[in-house]
TrEMBL record, chains A, B:
<dbReference type="Pfam" id="PF01740">
    <property type="entry name" value="STAS"/>
</dbReference>
<keyword id="KW-0378">Hydrolase</keyword>
<dbReference type="InterPro" id="IPR018490">
    <property type="entry name" value="cNMP-bd_dom_sf"/>
</dbReference>
<dbReference type="InterPro" id="IPR018488">
    <property type="entry name" value="cNMP-bd_CS"/>
</dbReference>
<dbReference type="InterPro" id="IPR015868">
    <property type="entry name" value="Glutaminase"/>
</dbReference>
<feature type="domain" description="Cyclic nucleotide-binding">
    <location>
        <begin position="473"/>
        <end position="571"/>
    </location>
</feature>
<feature type="binding site">
    <location>
        <position position="115"/>
    </location>
    <ligand>
        <name>substrate</name>
    </ligand>
</feature>
<dbReference type="InterPro" id="IPR002645">
    <property type="entry name" value="STAS_dom"/>
</dbReference>
<feature type="binding site">
    <location>
        <position position="259"/>
    </location>
    <ligand>
        <name>substrate</name>
    </ligand>
</feature>
<keyword id="KW-0007">Acetylation</keyword>
<protein>
    <recommendedName>
        <fullName>Glutaminase</fullName>
        <ecNumber>3.5.1.2</ecNumber>
    </recommendedName>
</protein>
<dbReference type="InterPro" id="IPR000595">
    <property type="entry name" value="cNMP-bd_dom"/>
</dbReference>
<feature type="binding site">
    <location>
        <position position="241"/>
    </location>
    <ligand>
        <name>substrate</name>
    </ligand>
</feature>
<feature type="binding site">
    <location>
        <position position="189"/>
    </location>
    <ligand>
        <name>substrate</name>
    </ligand>
</feature>
<feature type="binding site">
    <location>
        <position position="158"/>
    </location>
    <ligand>
        <name>substrate</name>
    </ligand>
</feature>
<dbReference type="InterPro" id="IPR012338">
    <property type="entry name" value="Beta-lactam/transpept-like"/>
</dbReference>
<comment type="similarity">
    <text>Belongs to the glutaminase family.</text>
</comment>
Length: 607, 607
């Protein structure tokens, strides 16, 4: 496999950044000075879980302040939004990371990204399941996909020298922001800062935040979805200290840096970026880390606000009505004619990707416009990977509107969209049973078609299946010839569910459906393995099956099962008079040609 | 048409907000006190140009500070990034709107959203084309889609009382930030603030920013794309004064408010929101405006960071190889067998929606993985509405990679993607001619197939078209019977480009291709109107056409044109011996059945 463009780019970037000098290694924690100033690791983890990495991307170092973002998310999960906001604000302080920015009256730290706010936040990490440090390590493990540990040398070193942070903790205790021992709070905070990570870990942590809180590699929920926006919000306004405004202006990605030399940046919906290079600038940010983020943002024109538009063009895979594409039910000529005329009253929409407010709104407008002419909407969500809250509510409102107008709407292929199904079921228990009635789009379309057919009184049930004249294969044969056909055949009865033909059977007979229904289907499983059953067509009285197999006296290429009690006339093809056989072959040619002509018509419409 | 869900929601919201009281009308500009405190207008304009509005959404009022965002974008366009940054910073001040937040050394205002920064920004609006006020009004007109004017009473009123702003202008002149008359600068600034807008206008202005700077209704470029992120960045960090951190945390949309009672908010890629209600809170923001933004954000779970993921699932409409779907060129049995075996070496990708970094990266990984087995990639961009900078560069790198490996890549249906084509052409003038060689996907696929066919030496050119045995329609006929067929026919020659059959002609003959090529096609135009020509198939020696029409002696349903010099044997079907006709009909049935069976196989694969 050729090198991926992004890998290629990162290698080039790494080579160039390796030449960048400047900055000094943090020395306020003595143990940090042991870092090699030449270390340089860069990693990008995408929102669908692919990881690119170059250089010292697997070199461990201590996470330091980057942990503040992770701990804030954990505190929100443990305590809820209001309890956390009561102790820590969300306004940028405009000051350096070690400033003591407390609100004058309450002592509430300005935000969770300065040390004061971070110590208060970490003290909020608690539940009954495990001690706080274990909870922190387990949470980090959720983000990185592997067990985490602490660099005890760095922890001990910071513990011995962290007087300013101890002072902050005592001030917080004095204001009642900390409710327990300041010593315990700073110890836990120092341990949190000493967790060992790599640039690769940071990228994946960022990817979890880019992916709605879910680790895209393991599928583990690292952070509840509803708190992801909140963590990204404080990163974007407070993550880079007094460079926050410029950072969003220039780089445009929520980010957090640490004095260990790491930076974690997030482009929501797209990727997490981790950079590691120990030398720091005067503001405590990694010199080459900042440069890497700025370069990547500039070179690719990436920015938080440069998102893909969410409109119908992005999620509507195709839409059609039943004049152009019908269900796989075989229709009589009268039914076909009716649907060609009235099929516009059934409309199908195949959606794709992620539905958010803008895309759902845009698609719904198109559906509502169609509703003036349509009686039924079938919305196929098979290729939709997620339905956002806003989109789910808009679809629910649409369903309510359609139901109120006495028309039908079916959402099909929704089994993977648990939250969306649940919203419909919770809000309208009775109605939703109908809205979610079909998982298979083709079944939903068939039912909608059938309503038109039944209303017009041209259904297959009015056909006499026993009158072989109604069958395309016998069209044009004389009554005498038909008698010969009947005489050559035997009537067969199958109970509902019985197999009539199976793939691989030798094909010798054609079957005329006299009464009941049969389904022609194949399985998606290859080589005898079981797979999903895919319906090719459903047949009623006046139709025929098995004729394709006998053309070349080959093996059956599809299964046929009785879907109701079924009566057929089985006619061995070889025993028929040659003239009759040739006549039937010509009918087949006409019939198949008409079907192929329909395909051509379809191409013309879809082109 | 039923009420759209969003309209419905806004009406309910309007009714509820009408009950909200509190706040006072701005009185520092005397003329503003004439506003009716009950006015309440809300409008949403989507990124694809649909506008929802309720209440007093058409009531004009003065834009006031919201103009700062528009003027900042215009100054960037007129002066460029560096010149503007030299005069005005981008860091939040953490202070109120009328604070005099200047950097101590340089006198540079902290950001363009405080009055000092806005006055400095407006003074940067200048080019040679028109006086600044005209430029401002024309720019606003680009955003709103209609001519704009100034409320002269408000302008005069502010001019008489705006002493603090005059003081600021003089300070700025003292620092050299303003380079011309402070009086002229404040006059222009007061005029800018007095431009009359409606809630509907604000929504559409926001929609322009949500849509990459393009007015989604008129298609006019309101702001150059490269400055949109910058304007949104200062709105997000400084747009709501000292409530900026909380605003992004709670509401999560870049926004700007004005003391006229307006708020403009933007959800990038999705919509602009305009609210108008005169009573203000202590910070100068519309009370009901804030409430409306918070409610809409909360009720729909909207947030800047809650974007749709950009992965292959969101943009890959479908992909296939030539074992499953082939070009519309009719293939001989030998060619068909070869492609069934080796068609996997040609892969086709149909993309859709907007390509950004994450989605392009994800799709490219899939392509690179396929490249191990494939010789040629065809990337169909027909349904792609935009290719972002990052995506364009990734596609370019992919093309370079593929070319370097000696394989082929074709980007098809790209005529609407001007910027992408230009990037390829600019970077690799020679190579891009090949990459962009086909606009029609089917032609590109045909050429790739043909390469496989030629390499294997099984092309139609090795068939003797004059030997009717090679023709499916004659298969199984005796030599004697073939002689009869030949005797009944006449040889016809057509120069390249000549029409052989036209839709509507009476169908009487079948045509055997002896040498050359013919194309079967229809037009997308309905009822005789000219449309796009859509190829149904291309035919070479050893194939037949016109046989479908003669089945029922009907009219021709497609056009056939000689694509090279063409020699055919035209055989009137009716004059043939009945036994030969029946034999041919059976061959047709077999042939069509095989084609339909392929369709079934396709369904099985696609299901």
């Amino acid at each position: 496999m050729a090198t991926a463009p992004v890998q290629d780019y990162l290698e080039q970037l790494h080579a160039e950044l390796a030449q960048v000098s400047g900055g000094t290694i943090a020395d306020y924690i003595p143990e940090l000075t042991r870092a090699d100033p030449n270390w340089l690791g860069i990693a990008i983890a995408t929102a669908d879980g692919h990881i690119y990495q170059v250089g010292d991307s697997r070199q461990p170092f201590t996470v330091q302040s980057i942990s503040k973002a992770i701990a804030y998310g954990l505190a929100l999960s443990d305590q809820g939004l209001d309890a956390v906001l009561a102790k820590v604000g969300v306004e940028p302080s405009g000051e350096a990371f070690n400033s003591i920015s407390l609100e004058p009256d309450t002592g509430r730290p300005m935000n969770p990204m300065i040390n004061a706010g971070a110590i208060a936040t970490t003290a909020l990490v608690r539940d009954d399941r495990a001690p706080p440090l274990e909870r922190l390590l387990a949470t980090f493990a959720g983000y990185t996909g592997h067990a985490m540990d602490i660099d005890t040398a760095v922890f001990e070193s910071e513990r011995e020298t962290g007087h300013r942070n101890r002072a902050i903790a005592h001030l917080l205790r004095g204001y009642g922001i900390l409710e327990s021992s300041p010593e315990a709070a700073t110890d836990l905070y120092f341990q949190q800062c000493a967790i060992r990570v790599t640039a690769r870990d940071l990228a994946l942590m960022g990817a979890c935040l880019a992916n709605g809180g879910v680790n895209p590699v393991t599928g583990v929920v690292a952070l509840k979805r509803r708190y992801v926006d909140k963590v990204l919000a404080v990163m974007s306004t407070c993550g880079m200290y007094d460079y926050s405004g410029g950072w969003i202006f220039n780089v445009g990605m929520p980010a957090k840096s640490g004095v260990g030399g790491g930076i974690m940046a997030v482009l929501p919906g797209q990727f997490g970026l981790g950079v590691f290079s120990p030398p720091l600038d005067a503001k405590g940010n990694s010199v080459r880390g900042i440069e890497a983020c700025e370069r990547i943002s500039r070179d690719f024109g990436l920015h938080l606000f440069s998102v893909a538009r969410a409109t119908s063009a992005t999620v509507l895979r195709r839409s059609y009505d039943c004049t152009r594409i019908r269900s796989r039910r075989e229709r009589s000529p009268a039914e076909t004619a009716l649907l060609a005329e009235q099929g516009g009253r059934v409309r199908v929409y195949e959606l794709q990707g992620e539905l958010v407010f803008g895309s759902a709104e845009s698609v719904e407008l198109a559906m509502l416009a169609d509703l003036a002419e349509a009686d039924a909407l079938v919305v196929d969500l098979k290729r939709v990977v997620a339905v956002g809250d806003a989109a789910a509510r808009l679809l629910l409102r649409l369903a309510e509107r359609v139901a109120a107008s006495g028309k039908q709407i079916y959402f099909t292929e929704t089994m993977h969209l648990y939250g969306f199904r649940r919203l419909l079921q919770k809000t309208h228990a009775a109605a939703s049973a109908d809205w979610l009635r079909f998982d298979d789009t083709d079944r939903a379309v068939e039912v909608c078609e059938q309503r038109l057919v039944d209303a017009a009184g041209v259904g297959a049930d009015v056909l006499d299946g026993a009158d072989l004249h109604n069958n395309y294969l016998c069209r044009g044969l004389s009554d005498t010839a038909l008698d010969t056909v009947r005489a050559a055949g035997s009537e067969r009865r199958y109970p509902a569910g019985a197999a009539v033909l199976s793939i691989g059977d030798t094909a010798q007979s054609v079957f005329f459906v006299l009464a009941g229904e049969a389904e022609v289907w194949v399985s998606t499983g290859e080589g005898g393995k079981s797979g999903r059953r895919v319906r090719l067509t459903t047949l009623g009285p006046g139709t025929v099956f098995g004729e394709i197999g006998v053309l070349d006296r080959e093996r059956r290429t599809a299964n046929v099962t009785a879907s109701t009690d079924l009566t057929c006339l089985e006619v061995p093809f070889a025993v028929l008079d040659p003239a009759i056989r040739e006549h039937m072959l010509a009918n087949m040619a006409r019939h198949f040609a008409a079907m192929l002509r329909e395909n051509a018509e379809l191409v013309r419409h879809l082109a």
